Amino acid sequence: MKKQIIFLFLATLLVFSCSKKEAKTYLSKDDFTRILFDIHLTDGVLTSKNIVNRGKEYRPSFYYNSIYKKYNISPQQFDSCVIFYTQNSALYEKIYEKVIDSLNRMETQFRIALKDSLIVRDTVNLWKGKGRVFLARGRREDLSFSIPVTEMGIYTVRAKIKRYKEDRSEEPFLDAYLWKEDSLKKSKRIYFDSIPISYSDDFVSYETQLEFSDSTFKELRGNIISWCNVDSNFTQHIDIRDVMIFNPQIKRDSIGLDSIMKFEQLKKEGFDRYEEPKRLRGIEDIKKR
User: Which of 67, 137, 194, 248 stands the most exposed, by the fewest C-beta atoms within 10 Å?
Assistant: First the structure.
């Protein structure tokens, strides 16, 4: 009986020791995927012209060591993880597919953000009101707009809005429409999608768009915030900033498009090629030996 107890204790200790050793040696599949993603990003940073030109400040080890510190492992432990996961080629391939997919998604998001920022920077803001409006303590601001439209294209109404919990606006929304009068002096409208404004702890970006393709409509009208309150005497608590009304066809110049073309050229020169990090290629060479 005592022998059985001792054997059981030793077996439990052995399992615990192995588990503890394995936990120190190998990252989980998810963490290993994340660290590969970070290493790919670091490789991209280190190969950029601005980093290489920094001369003595160019220290690749600093960037890689910061990754190891983030995941609380040593370079040797990372090498062990690579060897461990590459022993299962099917699993390693799935991990790498996920890493490449994440990198591609990041690149797409970056390209969209870059293009959007260039378009906004190069576009005339048709909103002539205040850039920042705070509605509170009985303050009322005219947030309506009436803008003559002549250029075809897609018109966008955009604002960053923070609606506090104390706000008592009923069903507030971002409102816009194209307007004209017909031969009988009757008003006609084509509405943009109305965007409801929700309570939030931080600023939220709201926007609505509509393509202007009928030149008989003469104005773009609406309100940055409309509400459904019957009684005008109610508490408002809303912060509004970065209001923009624009059509990308209405430009100051063509600098933005030139920048996008330059970015596409850089992409063709190798930005979109994700190769296995040099460190991992070195590990693979060690395995083949």
Answer: 137
Contact 197, 225 (CB under 8 A): yes
Longest Cα separation, the chain: 105
This prediction's pTM: 0.50
The arrangement of strands across the sheet holding 132-135 comes to 132-135, 238-246, 153-163, 204-212
Q: Are 245 and 127 in contact (CB under 8 A)?
A: yes
Q: Give the pairing type, strands 153-163 and 238-246.
A: antiparallel
**Residue 183 Cα to chain centre, angstroms:** 47
> How confident is the model over 18-74, as pLDDT tens digits?
334 443 446 888 888 888 888 888 887 777 655 555 555 556 777 788 888 888 888
In the chain, list all ranges with CATH 2.60.120.260.
132-246
Amino acid occupying residue 248: P
